[in-house]
Design brief:
mainly beta
Length: about 170
């Protein structure tokens, strides 16, 4: 349960996402939750006992976000995966220590990159479909130094995205 409340002089909140309320709330529906109910009750109206006045919701909007998961099980010495949104306002990172997991606004553009370090990048499964590093119609490749490249692809978000990086040990 997430509750935002207000009397007639300022905003207050209760819940577990934010500790101080603002006029902008992001509520992310937990993965697997099939139904969400949103309600509003006027508790104390401005200057009248009639609760049908004041403190109503205005400019409420619901936006569709999709989960993007590009975290991989290797350490930083294996390589780095990064999600870069075209517009940072359209992406909510959920792992503040990395740029590998979050929620992207439907219709927004992101770039997902893998930077080689001590492991050779072979490709990646994107939503279960394997894309070899040799697939130049899919990957953009940037050479950063001899034997180390950055492989990236762009995506307009219209569904959840899961990336599983495939790499091998260097010989």
């Amino acid at each position: 349960v997430w509750i935002s409340s207000s009397d007639n002089s300022g905003w207050h909140d209760y819940g577990e996402i934010e500790t101080r309320a603002t006029y902008n709330y992001d509520y992310i529906v937990p993965q697997g939750q099939e139904n969400s109910i949103f309600g509003f009750v006027s508790v104390k109206a401005d200057g009248t006992a009639d609760k049908s006045y004041g403190n109503f919701l205005d400019n409420i909007a619901f936006k569709e976000y999709y989960y993007v998961h590009a975290k991989f099980d290797g350490g930083e010495n294996f390589g780095n995966v990064t999600i870069t949104p075209e517009d940072p306002e359209h992406f909510i990172f959920t792992d503040l220590d990395s740029k590998e997991v979050g929620w992207s606004l439907a219709g927004s553009k992101i770039t997902i990159s893998f930077q080689e370090q001590d492991r050779i990048f072979l490709g990646a499964y994107i939503n279960g479909v394997f894309h070899s590093k040799n697939d130049t119609s899919f990957w953009t490749v940037e050479k950063i130094q001899e034997g180390k490249n950055v492989y990236s692809f762009k995506r307009i978000i219209d569904a959840a995205v899961t990336v599983k990086v495939v790499y091998q040990a260097k010989n």
